[in-house]
What we know:
Elements: H1 2-6, H2 8-40, H3 45-59, H4 63-72, H5 74-77, H6 84-110, H7 113-121, H8 126-156, H9 168-177, H10 182-214
Helix pairs in contact: 2-3, 2-6, 2-8, 2-9, 3-6, 4-6, 6-8, 7-8, 8-10, 9-10
Amino acid sequence: MNVLLDNFPEFRDGFIGTVSITAVSSVIALVLGVVVAGFRVSPVPPLRYFGTAWVTLMRNTPLTLLFLIFFFVVPEILFPGMSPFVLGSLALGFYTSSFVCEAVRSGINTVPLGQAEAARSIGMTFSQTLRIVVLPQATRTVIPPLSSIFIALTKNSAIAGAFSVAELFGWQKLMSDKGYDIVPVFIWVALGYLVVTFTISGLFRLLERRMEVAR
């Protein structure tokens, strides 16, 4: 307990950092994932090729390598002076977007083809059909895998601690450098991650129940 009480401001900053990078990168992953999923089912070949290339590249690139690219290559070429938090959120969001894309695409495939054909028969465009008809029906199927994806994102955020982003795993490194016993430090770090992951799981369970009632 002394490890936590004596260093509570640092632990608090690390916990807030983990929650912040999880929230921001989740939004990035969700928006990009839905857009790329739309590309993957698009009738326009270049968009389908781009979507396939995006998923293939992101899913097969180690996350640590992606962090290295964002922290040491992107600032040199595109956006110099970006904060470590923004770079970490982008790296984590881009990586996770490929998994969100595949979850959303699998949900889209569960919607009967007749739904899209009926929408097109009354003059809807592809984007209108996807937004108004297909995605709302696919949401019920997509919610459970998205829960697992965002929980995995929370745990993956630990990598950001090695790149000067204030989060829980960075606090663990700080405490280790101060000479504290590693066991209680890891217990508090694990409890911090459990709070975040249980919260995400609870939110998705609540959302799933609401969608079941709507059904």
